[in-house]
Amino acid sequence: MIKKLKGLSTIILFESVNATKKVGRIPILENIDLVIRRGENVAIVGENGSGKSSLLKLIAGIYEPTIGKVNRSTRKIAYVPEHFPTNIRFKMMEYLLLVGEMSGRKRSDLIGQIKEYSEIFHVENYLEMPLKSCSKGTKQKVGIIQALMAAPDLMVLDEPLTGLDFSSQQKLLHQLELESNSTIVFTAHENLLIDGIAHQVFGLENGKITRKQKQKSQQKIMLIKAYAKKAKKHLDNKNIIHAYWEGDHTVFITVESVFSDTLLIHLIEKGFSIHEVKEKR
């Protein structure tokens, strides 16, 4: 479905109209009117039991509405549940290869990508370990790697930060910031992802959308890659949205374009060398 709306993508990936989902006679989602456009990341927030996971399943196509209508303009959807299946008998590498090959990709390409992501998330030492023997956090990383490898149009993540330590949370945020070709819909209790990547935030209560909040301004967001000669220099500029260190010397910084020139001057004065400046979206 294509609509022309000023200032927004014209491509709608998901739309629900008065959608209600019942289990037996009990409604778990009621009268859901929701539009998700390409390139507009969406956060779903609410208390436990509010219906967040059920809404993600509706968006991903795992659920269909009992009443109302749902339209999905893409089949290229990756869904990562909050709890990774516990009794998968495959080793990590075997599982990721199997999932990748099911989508028609070459094994040689998959091996390289799996090794790259496993190093990013520090699970390279577990590639030959059975998944059922891995920790909750490690399994969570496998689910995220599986979604990233799929390069979907729509990525649906249920509490993706659960079970991850702070360093892994930062790495995930950085990877999702780079996913400019994927629209991301997620649930989260933490502000890290909401502040970092969400354009829209929807509140859910008792299976109903109760509020809609514009999360980000219409300012362009710039990504700056800088190098510090001294390891991990302190960054105290109040205009920085997010800073992610890759190693001890290279930092990726996001900032609104209106503040980018001032920040670049600040970084140079601090002794950083600037490697790249580009618009995020």
From TrEMBL:
GO molecular function, one term: ATP binding
Alphabetical UniProt keywords: ATP-binding, Nucleotide-binding, Transport
Record domain ABC transporter: where: 12-231
Keyword Oxidoreductase assigned: no
Presence of the UniProt keyword Transmembrane helix in the record: no
Domain of life of the native organism: Bacteria
Name of the molecule in the record: ATP-binding cassette domain-containing protein
Organism annotation: Bacillus seohaeanensis
